[in-house]
Specification:
Pfam families: MATH_2. This is TRAF-like family protein isoform 2. InterPro entries: MATH/TRAF_dom, TRAF-like. The protein has 2 domains: about 150 residues, Apoptosis, Tumor Necrosis Factor Receptor Associated Protein 2, Chain A, CATH 2.60.210.10; about 150 residues, Apoptosis, Tumor Necrosis Factor Receptor Associated Protein 2, Chain A (Sandwich), CATH 2.60.210. About 5% of the residues lie in helices and about 45% in strands. The chain is built from 3 helices and 22 strands. The longest helix has 8 residues.
Amino acid sequence: MNRQDEDGKSCINTPSNEMEGDKLVKTKRKEAPAHYILDIESLQMLLEILSKPRLDRYESTEFEASGHKWRLILYPEGDKQRNGGGHISLYLRIVDVEKLGRAWEIDALINFFVLDQEDNQYLSIQDGRVKRFNAVKREWGFSRLLPLTEFHDKGYLSKKGRCEFGVEVFVLKSEGKGECFSILDYPIRNYYIWKVEKFSKLGESSHYSEDFTVGDYKWRLHLYRQGVAKVKGQYLSIFLCLHELKENTFWTQFHVEFKLRIIDQSDKLNSKKTEKTGNAWFSATKPAWGFPYFIKRADLEGNKDFIVNDEMVVEAEISSMSMAKELTPDPPKPQEEVRP
């Protein structure tokens, strides 16, 4: 006989029942259970068989799902030892565990099913909790899955005595994948000034500034004097580029708020007129963001204070930086050697 605690709940080698106060989530769907179906053509015949001494449950044959082997355990008149009288009781048991070694544990989500014969839909029953299978608890399920009155009166048992149950089991296995979003410390030196010399001699190709560092990361500015292809000859185009990362970082993307401006060399306050504010996500596949329509070439070259002695000054300011980086998986736990 299985040992139970004073509340009547299983203690060892018995299925775990819904805890007091827990609510089962019941929904209906047309799709059949993905992993296993138990189709009983005559419940009355099965009950006659189970009425014999020490035969109070039906155990399915072994089936494989989510990389492991299982059995479905049905008590059609209730698992009375676990307070399941007057209910359908249904459990899932893991089998063939010898290959798992010592101290094995398997976490899984379980979804049980009962076919509604009248509307040909499956009643899905689960509690949304992760079940941990191990050497002590090899079965999980519900002693009070469905009241027998509801089972008989609401279409789950056909007039000919046919009924159908099912189960889906999804084993949870962490792959160590994920990311962490964090705000980086506000950089002390968060701006860069680029003096673009011999501006009139720049060709149609792009031109890069020297590298500069903000927040331990290297950046540079990317300038098209003639503009990028879609605005060629009409606008000056400027972009901020993420150029190089510090070593040993598992970043996935940066969120950066930045400003780019062309300095009015006679009155710096007038530089606000050309200032553009950017708000973008930088990544390995999208390392550059900026403004193809930064300023009309006619406005730039027509203002003698923006280009002095054939030199234009561009200022970049990074006001905030946030990073999403990969979560590094925990190192594997040491396991005891299993000798043949």
